[in-house]
Amino acid sequence: MINLRRRFEANESWEHGSVYEPNLVYHDGRWKMWYVAGSNQEDYLVHGYSESPDGRTGWSKHQIVFGPEEKVFDFCVAETKKGFEAVFSRVFLGKRFPSAPAGLYWCEAKEPSSRMSDWSKPVQIMSAEDRGWHSGPWKPSLRYSDTDSNMMLVFFDGQYQKKEGGPFPFVFTLGCLEIARPY
Questions:
Q1: pLDDT at residue 99, as a whole number
Q2: The whole model's pTM is what?
Q3: How confident is the model at residue 86 (pLDDT cuts 50, 70, 90)?
Q4: What secondary structure letter does DSSP report for 54?
Q5: How far apart are CA 104 and CA 102, in angstroms?
Q6: CA 44 to chain centre
Q7: Burial environment of residue 6 by CB neighbours within 10 A (0 to 12, 13 to 18, 19 or more)
Q8: pLDDT tens digits, residue range 147-167?
Q9: Which structural domains are found in the chain, ordered by start?
């Protein structure tokens, strides 16, 4: 049976009425969710966090993880042998650059926390440099190779501008960054 009546909605003024791009882990008896709030058109992105005992109801007060100046689009958390690791993207959408360069970042923590102070200092693992087939990576997904436990695989979305015109000027692409564990 499908129940579409359960939902997670924007309820804080800083969310600007929108919540999307969820990334969840289940840890210590709770669903922990990092999500994007705000509006790309307004050049306003905030990264939020909330917890729930069942992943459907009882969500905790929404908290800001990254403010709008950071331009963080996704925070993908994965449990690993050493604890937890996260890969996230900083994007450039509007008139001003984010406080840190756009691209993909990696960090680690003992527990999946909503406070960035509990995570290691983020390390940039990929820039937003235009590589022809993509620029400005976003929506990362982190996994480790099944044949080399030190080889991190980060799948991501990218885009490039079409040479010919049309109603939609971009082409979306997918990529995979293969990188040795960055510590």
A1: 66
A2: 0.90
A3: very high
A4: S
A5: 7
A6: 15
A7: exposed
A8: 998 999 999 998 887 777 778
A9: 13-130 (2.115.10.20)
